[in-house]
From TrEMBL, chains A, B:
Residues 31-50 bind DNA. Residues 8-68 form the HTH tetR-type domain. This is TetR family transcriptional regulator. Pfam families: TetR_N. GO terms for molecular function: DNA-binding transcription factor activity; transcription cis-regulatory region binding. Keywords: DNA-binding, Transcription, Transcription regulation. PROSITE patterns: HTH_TETR_2. Gene3D superfamilies: Tetracycline Repressor, domain 2. Coiled coil: none annotated. SUPFAM superfamilies: Homeodomain-like, Tetracyclin repressor-like, C-terminal domain.
DNA sequence: CCGTTTCTTGAATCGAAATTCAACAAGCTC
DNA sequence: GAGCTTGTTGAATTTCGATTCAAGAAACGG
């Protein structure tokens, strides 16, 4: 039936399938068969590659996180203006909408982190990396005299990431009056106060949006 | 074996048992037997009172949320000084530590909200109520001339609640360098900037801490 | 006390999903 | 293209938890 594939290729496929399955059915309610279905295989085949489903789920979460972070890094890679850089970073930290697959997965992870130390560690790492990212931007801007920081860069950076996270949850939970645009404004309100910069950057023309797997 | 109890009393017990069980095993991986065990009953008895386990879980989440909110309201009930009020409110929005039962349950809820509309609605309501709470405090302080608000009260209130939420998650996930005291400082940093008030309030002497059920 | 209602148990049943495994197919090497 | 390795299936088996239910114990009202 299904064409045979190389070990590494199939594992990659399975990780993607697991991501999709988890977003649809939940990190710890997803069934082996649901992952198999997403991959277009049978449960036996999945088990052949991952004798313990939990290993696969962990790898999938890891990959999802990595992808999310890498995407953000890539988005600001070419930008030199600190103001523009900061604004784009803020925008890239929020889900595109309530269906955003990457962020939904992260929310899932957040819920499980209270019970699962490995997931907790994963999220902690992501948080810290994002803080560093902001910190770099802030200090660069300060060095160039564009920002006049009203607190330590770490404090600001931590708060910025915290705001992103929290609004991510709200958006995923479909808050009726708190959409993406509103969340951006709320975070910008803080960022303006604390950088002493109006942060006037026109909205980008909508480019290719981030992958949206949860087509349910 | 177990002593017989009145309908309402037993239902109350079951809600508490469900709370404990969910914190230990996860909102949507908790087993009927685990709830029964927490209640010191058999699965049959649980089913007698709640033919559908999901109803019980929902009530338990609802009760947990209500308790969390009510506790916060009660904490600031007697305080008239807006500065003190604001600071106490900020402190009461964070978990006492990584084991804090109430907040762990809320995090669970957050993770499930992406898939479960009812849970999402529950959290949205809680968020909005907390925003109102802050908004009242902020406007009262502004009216008294103690605060000089640097943005709309709703904007500030939304950001304050968002920060609390996010740091709650970090603390529950045991971030190694972001403990409760640090989180309070981070939020206060924002609150100071935006109220134009130094918010100098000595730490309360540790009173009876919030219930900590997750003794696992 | 006696009968009734309410609550609880424990064992039996049912169902769903995980796990195992023999057979088979598709590449790969020489 | 024969023989080996690797990947995949599908059905059988096992496991585990939910569900049902007959029976019994505790309160309660007269």
């Amino acid at each position: 039936m299904t064409t045979r594939k190389s070990r590494t290729q199939r594992r990659q496929d399975l990780i993607e399938a697991a991501r999709r399955a988890m977003i649809q059915h939940g990190t710890d309610t997803v069934l082996l068969n649901q992952v198999a279905e997403q991959a277009g295989l049978t449960s036996g085949a999945v088990l052949y590659h991952y004798p313990d489903l939990r290993d696969l789920l962990l790898e999938a979460h890891h990959a999802g996180m990595e992808r999310f972070y890498e995407l953000r890094v890539r988005r600001i890679a070419g930008i030199s203006d600190p103001v523009r850089k900061l604004v784009v970073t803020i925008r890239s930290g929020l889900p595109t909408d309530a269906e955003d697959a990457d962020v939904r997965l992260l929310c899932e992870l957040g819920g499980a982190a209270g019970r699962n130390r490995v997931y907790a560690a994963l999220l902690t790492t992501l948080y810290d990396r994002q803080v560093s990212m902001y910190q770099t931007i802030l200090e660069l801007g300060a060095a160039q005299g564009v920002f006049r920081l009203a607190a330590e860069s770490q404090t600001i950076a931590r708060n910025l990431v915290a705001l992103e996270d929290a609004y991510g949850y709200r958006i995923i939970a479909r808050h009726p009056t708190l959409d993406v645009a509103e969340a951006v404004e709320l975070i910008l309100s803080y960022a303006r106060q604390v950088t002493g910069n109006p942060l006037d950057v026109p909205a980008e023309p909508a480019k290719a949006p981030r992958a949206r797997r949860a087509s349910a």
